[in-house]
Amino acid sequence: MPESQIIELGTLGQIPLYSLERALQDPLRAVKLRRQIVSQHQATGNIDFTTDGSALPYEGYDYKAVLGACCENVIGYMPIPVGVAGPIKINGKMVFLPMSTTEGALVASTNRGCMAINAGGGVTALVLGDGMTRAPIVRFPSLEEAGAAKQWLGSDAGFLIIEDAFNASSRFARLQNIKATAVGSDLYIRFTASTGDAMGMNMISKGVEQALEAMQKHGFESMDVVSLSGNFCADKKPAAVNWIEGRGKTVTAQATIPEHAVRETLKTSVEALVELNVSKNLVGSAVAGALGGFNAHAANVVTAIYLATGQDPAQNVQSSNTLTVMKNVNGDLQISVFMPSIEVGTVGGGTVLGPQKAMLHMMGVQGADPEQPGRNAQELALLVAAGVLAGELSLCSALSAGSLVKSHLTHNRKKG
């Protein structure tokens, strides 16, 4: 079929936009034709828009990697600037942190934080917990049956049955614990499992499906699955359960900044930083009724690194849960962050794309760790926490010194 006919039929809605890759067996050609269909469609006809004449690029991209994995109805790709902060010394290693952002001053500020941290010997960071969660809703005919199911899940015998079914779903998924809450005759079951180097949402969802089938075969035939996700997980929304129980990687990172580095690099004082952190990040956040937001701007750094490394940017909602603490220790500044729900992976999702894969490689965490599955994803979580630590340190310093507006005018406003 001639391209002109494909475009005409697509414009009239007789060929679905989503079917072009399958029909043409050529992802790049499908993108090219879809751009023309969108340009000629009545939805864009009255706004003088053409994708061919637009600044949105489409050539020179690996759409085969995108197909069936990352995006649908593709008309191009969105270039976002990528900068590097650092290198920063973390657990004895020097690493650059890639950050993809359009916010001027963010990379420069984080880089300044890295410099100050290195002056004190670097960051020490630990993974305190590692478990992705999924929480389906199941429904029973009566409250009594829901209660019996909750009790069974909490028993050794019940857990072993569920564990066997769950673990059989994957080489890497390993069930850690189950927490069930009954609301009337509905049961919300929060499964927690390790998922290797994958972020793990798809993996754990598959395991949960098999676990629920096992439940139905072991005395709970009347159980109906209302939804595989019941928001007790909780994914992509603020939730106390993630702050308290953790989700993904639970990480803490700490550094000591010598007084001279605080004064010379950060242009402030230890006393001013400690006071500002209490007033802003602790008291101010409490006044605001913050949930997991006891920090200055953790989400800025988390999202920038996520975009650069192929993570799910929407998961910055829970991944940015951060408690920032600053103390005066013998005249120097001790700063730490506690992040209970960093959700990252080094395989799957956007990590299959070439540019994102390259940034993971630069950080030394690309792909699956063949010797210790999960180690690369844990290392990435530590690097995210180190970046957040640097970002918190620099922004709070700018606020305490009164230089925030000046720095943004310098880095975020084009002259002339």
Topology:
Elements: H1 3-11, H2 20-24, H3 27-40, H4 42-45, H5 63-66, E1 82-90, E2 93-100, H6 106-119, E3 124-134, E4 137-139, H7 143-153, H8 156-167, E5 174-183, E6 186-194, H9 201-217, E7 224-227, H10 240-245, E8 248-257, H11 259-264, H12 270-287, E9 293-294, H13 298-309, H14 316-319, E10 322-329, E11 332-342, H15 354-363, H16 375-401, H17 404-411
Parallel strand pairs: 9-10
Antiparallel strand pairs: 1-2, 3-6, 3-8, 4-6, 4-7, 5-6, 8-11, 10-11
* Approximate helicity band: 40-55%
* Unreliable residue runs: none
Oligomer: single chain
The averaged pLDDT comes out at 96
CATH topology of the largest domain: 3-hydroxy-3-methylglutaryl-coenzyme A Reductase, Chain A, domain 2
Protein name: 3-hydroxy-3-methylglutaryl coenzyme A reductase AN1593
Enzyme class: oxidoreductase
InterPro entries: HMG_CoA_Rdtase, HMG_CoA_Rdtase_cat_sf, HMG_CoA_Rdtase_CS, HMG_CoA_Rdtase_eu_arc, HMG_CoA_Rdtase_N, HMG_CoA_Rdtase_NAD(P)-bd_sf, HMG_CoA_Rdtase_sub-bd_dom_sf
Main location: membrane
Main attributes?
3 domains, two-stranded antiparallel ribbon, 416 residues, 44% helix, alpha+beta, single chain, transmembrane, glycoprotein, 3-hydroxy-3-methylglutaryl-coenzyme A Reductase, Chain A, domain 2, 20% strand, 9-stranded mixed sheet, 11 strands, Alpha-Beta Plaits, globular
Walk me through this protein's architecture:
The chain is α+β, with helices and mostly antiparallel strands. The chain has three domains: 12-65, no CATH class; 82-130 and 249-412, 3-hydroxy-3-methylglutaryl-coenzyme A Reductase, Chain A, domain 2; 136-227, Alpha-Beta Plaits (2-Layer Sandwich), CATH 3.30.70. It contains 17 helices and eleven strands. The protein has helices at residues 3-11, 20-24, 27-40, 42-45, 63-66, 106-119, 143-153, 156-167, 201-217, 240-245, 259-264, 270-287, 298-309, 316-319, 354-363, 375-401, 404-411; strands at 82-90, 93-100, 124-134, 137-139, 174-183, 186-194, 224-227, 248-257, 293-294, 322-329, 332-342. β5 and β6 form a beta hairpin. The longest helix is centred in the last third of the chain and has 27 residues, at 375-401. It is globular.
